[in-house]
Amino acid sequence: MSIRLGGIIAGLAITLVLVLWSLVPGVYNFAFGPPAEKPASYAFYEHGEGPEGGYSFDGAMGKWDVGQLQRGYQVYKEVCSACHSLKFVAFRNLQQLGYTEAEVDAEANSWTVPGIDPNTGEATTLPGKPVDFFPSPYPNAIAAAAANNNAIPPDLSLMTKARHDGSAYVYDLLVGYGEADPEKAAKLGFETPPGLYFNKHFPNVNIAMPPPLVLDGQVTYADGTEATIPQMSADVAAFLTWTAEPSLIERKQTGWFVIGFLLFATMLAFLSYKQIWAGMKPKKN
Amino acid sequence: MSFAWAKQYEPKSAFTKWIDEKLPFPRLVYNAVGAGYPVPRNLNYMWNFGVLAGFCLMIQIITGVVLAMHYAANATVAFGTVEHIMRNVNYGWMLRYAHANGASFFFIVIYLHIFRGFFYSSYKAPREMIWLLGVVIFLLMMATAFMGYVLPWGQMSFWGAQVITGLFGAIPLVGEPLQIWLLGGFAPDNAALNRFFSLHFLLPFVIAGVVILHIWALHIPGSSNPTGVEVKSESDTVPFHPYYTSKDGFGLGVFLILFTAMVFFLPNALGHPDNYIEANPLSTPALIVPEWYFYPFYAILRAFTGDLTIPFTGIVLIPAKLLGVIGMFGSILVWFILPWLDKSPVRSGHYRPLFRKFFWFGLVPTMAALFYLGGTHAEEPYIMLSQFFTAYYFLHFLVILPIISQIEVPKPLPFSITEGVLGKAATTEAPRAGTVDGGDAGTLPDGSLQPAE
Questions:
Q1: Are the C-beta atoms of B170 and B321 separated by less than 8 Å?
Q2: How far apart are CA A7 and CA A25, in angstroms?
Q3: Residue B446: its pLDDT value, please?
């Protein structure tokens, strides 16, 4: 009895505190207080949907489009890598994109990575080997910040997993540059500060990254695909999906096998359950 | 313990006889989860989740031990070693996704297990100790899960650690030094990461130990059942093996299908993208939230926004932050006194009309709302809704349940489990499970309930 009485008193006390000291002022402010201020950027942000038709790796049956990954790698190499590192990806991983061992060797060789001079022991740069990881364009974070108006270009290895619906996000961001509607901007007193760029798909619409893809044909694709801005954006987004999760397709394929096995095993388990309980069914009266 | 009609273990071969004399471990297993444990025959699927929870613990320990072989608890490399596991370790991605989603599924299973306990009043005498140990397991799980989430050292790991250890800072007088002592510094860093890893490795084995006590305590009165009427005779029970091992086997299959569907097709759906950004003490994420399974308690924590003051004097008795901490911990600690708050002699919600109304239209929507609200931005109207539902949460346990148990007129209960299953006429000649001779010779365990006739 005493615990119950104590409980009732404690319950009423907690409720009283919540209602009198938190809920009542909250409701009052919500009803009569000034409306919550939303930053003007809300008026300009548009949610993107990713490239038209989606990606080849979407869905439970998705597959890599190796040609697209190779094109995306080319965009990364020729455009993004000027500022963005890819520190969790090694050159040897490129074999998964359909390159032969010799091609990977040559590709690694075309990059310069930091190393130690074998004769003097001095820090130097060497041509890359397949075991090396993609080098950072800057020696350190301070250099990266100094070169980019204090905004450090993030590493791209995990970018598509570090944002909601990241594969679509990267595409949207790359095609989202433009001008704010001047009429609306004037009305709301909105302007893009110097050093930032308007991008309708970036959460606060002013982004520090200058538009990286500005011209159709900025990259000349080896396979002859026309390099429009949406095409390059989709290709590099696909490539970055691969860098974020090289095991994506293997994972889904393993999943079908595992679930197939489990369906079979569960069916057997169900049948044995029914058989064992068969004698225990209630008799019909 | 056991009912008098429980089957006895009989070693057959010379080897098992030898083992049985020296260390009767097979006998222990036989009596615990084998044919030697008589279980009510009318258990529904809600009784599958205890076994599933044990299975989840095993998944977590096995995948966790392997992950620990490749992980390094050092703030400079932790994030990289997790990526190393994802990219270079054989099937490392599978291990890590199974471990991360395994935590979520462990909590899903545990929440359903607790839900079963609430609806069928599994906490009532003579099973209070099982319930209390269960709450201890739940608290240990929360601590383990929280520390595990810090280990990848992503943004949400770091800021989650900052917020949760910050709760200790709300304790009067000793709060701040206590927080610094717990973290080994002014903010989460290498010292904190290292001790979290150590504890994250230790606690699952502590949980396993308490699970053994939980099952031990269960075997003293035996399992409860959906009618809430105690076992009265042999016809009320079936041996755990093969009856419930087969049923649990089927349940396990269904569970594994759902679990692997998440692991292989939506492994990041329950996580937060920010945790794929390496921890950065200089950049605060827009929204700091714990993992989804902490949302109800996080909502309660954030519901207390006003200091408790003496009106018109401005003297603060309890600051809002401390109120929130008390509320959050109190919301779980209240489960410890639940067996003494709800004293209705009827266990099952099926026979409690008033309790059932407040359960389905009060507690269940409240929990659903708190689950939702814990993941939202701290802005109106979410704060008000959190406050409303937090108030109901405490009212439900501390006020409504004790009053219901006083005034409710329960529905008539079946005389026995067998009658509940087979109807009245069949009670006398119910089919028996197993082939034990001697029938109902033993003393009947006390039913404690008066049959309503």
A1: yes
A2: 26
A3: 41
The answer, for A23 touching chain B at a CB cutoff of 8 Å, is: yes
Instruction: Please tell me which of the candidates B93, B276, B402 has its beta carbon nearest to residue A162.
Output: B276
Measured torsion, CA atoms of residues B27, B29, B30, B36, in degrees rounded to the nearest 10: 110
User: What is the rounded CA–CA span in Å between residue B346 and residue B39?
Assistant: 20
Question: Residue B22, exposed/middle/buried by CB under 10 A (0-12, 13-18, 19+)?
Answer: exposed
Query: Which domains does chain B possess?
Result: 37-269 (1.20.810.10), 302-341+353-409 (no CATH)
Q: Which of residues 398-427 of B touch A (CB under 8 A)?
A: 398-399, 402-403, 421-423, 425-426
How many CB atoms neighbour CB B370 within 10 A? 23
3-class DSSP assignment, residue B138: helix
Q: CA-CA distance, A169 to A203, in Å (whole number)? A: 10
Cβ of B381 and A30 within 8 Å? yes
What's residue B453's pLDDT? 32
Question: Residue holding tokens 């030697």?
Answer: B36
Domain ranges, ordered by start, for chain A: 40-89+134-245, 250-279
Residues B189-235 have pLDDT tens digits of: 999 999 999 999 999 999 999 999 999 999 999 999 999 999 999 88
Model confidence at A282, in pLDDT bands (50, 70, 90)?
Answer: low
Q: Counting beta carbons within 10 angstroms of the beta carbon of residue A47, is it exposed (0 to 12), middle (13 to 18) or buried (19 or more)?
A: exposed
Cα B1 to Cα B222: distance, rounded to the nearest angstrom: 8
Lookup result for tokens 């390059």: A232
For residue B428, the chain A residues in CB contact (below 8 A) are: none
In chain B, the residue whose alpha carbon lies closest to the alpha carbon of A264 is B253
Residues B72, B125 contacting (CB under 8 angstroms)? no
What gap in Å lies between CA B331 and CA B11, rounded to an integer? 48
Task: Enumerate residues 238 to 297 of chain B having a beta carbon within 8 A of any beta carbon in chain A.
Answer: 238, 242-243, 246-247, 249-250, 252-254, 256-257, 260-261, 263-265, 267-268, 273-274, 276-277, 286
User: What does the block give as tokens for A51?
Assistant: 């490239």
Measure the CA angle with vertex A197, ends A194 and A202; round to 5°. Answer: 135
A155, amino acid identity: D
How many Cβ pairs within 8 Å bridge chains A and B? 174
Residues 422-451 of B with CB under 8 A from A: 422-423, 425-426, 431, 433
CB atoms within 10 A of CB A244: 23
- How distant, in Å, are the alpha carbons of A19, A106, B28 from that of B299? 15, 55, 43
Per residue in A145-195, pLDDT (tens digit) is 999 888 899 999 999 999 999 999 999 999 999 888 888 888 888 888 888
Query: Mean pLDDT by 10-residue block, N- to C-terminus, for chain B (453 residues)?
Result: 86 94 94 93 94 97 97 95 96 97 97 96 94 97 96 95 90 90 92 96 97 96 93 91 95 97 95 94 88 94 86 82 92 95 92 95 96 88 91 95 92 87 60 41 38 36
> What tokens appear for B106 in the block?
């462990």
Who's near B247: CB < 8 A, 6+ residues apart?
A273, A277, B43, B48
Q: Which CATH class is domain A40-89+134-245?
A: mainly alpha
